[in-house]
Each structure stands twice: as C-alpha cells, then as structure tokens.
Amino acid sequence: MSGGLEVLSVKEEDMLKLLAAGAHLGSTNVDHQMHQYVFKRKPDGIFIINLKKTWEKLLLAARAIVAIENPADICVISARPYGQRAVLKFASSTGSTPIAGRFTPGTFTNQIQ
Q: Which regions form coiled coils (predicted)?
C-alpha cells in the first residue's frame, strides 16, 4: 500500500509466514473476479495467488475491524471444520463474537419481529 505507515509494509518474515501457511495456493478453478489476484498458474493447474495483494486486503480488513468501537459487535463465523479453531482463536484475542460450527443462513437478516 502506498503512502502508508512503514510498520504496515510487507516484510520478508510476513511473506514467509503466508507461504508456510499455504495462503498462496489456490485451486484449479478461478472465478473471473479473482483473476486480478492470480499471480501464475502451475503446470498441474493450481493457481498461485499474489501474496502482495493478499497482504493489502488483510490490511484493509484489519482497518475495517479496528474502526468498530465495540469488538463484541464483530461476528466471526466458520462452519468448516478447518476454520473453526481459527475463528475461536481470533475471537478470544479480539473480544469478538465467535460462531464456530453450524450457521443458519438468514440468522442476522431474518429476525422474528
């Protein structure tokens, strides 16, 4: 991100952590809206995600989360088994509300009056 604070600029250590987590590996299918985030395609068909753009979107998400005054108003959701631990850890460190497991669509929008 240009014009930002130096502390928020991407460091080699940050990139190595993203690589170790496999954040750069996509799937064999890519939506047309995701093409701007694709770096390359491997010979086996796996798309490689641009980690610099991933870092920029992480900073954008962090700024949106920090802008909310009451952390309990933030709801972190993962119905997938591999995301539930991350949701619980994130919620415990930020004070947000976790929903790990089954989440019924419309829970927020279809309130009974």
A: none
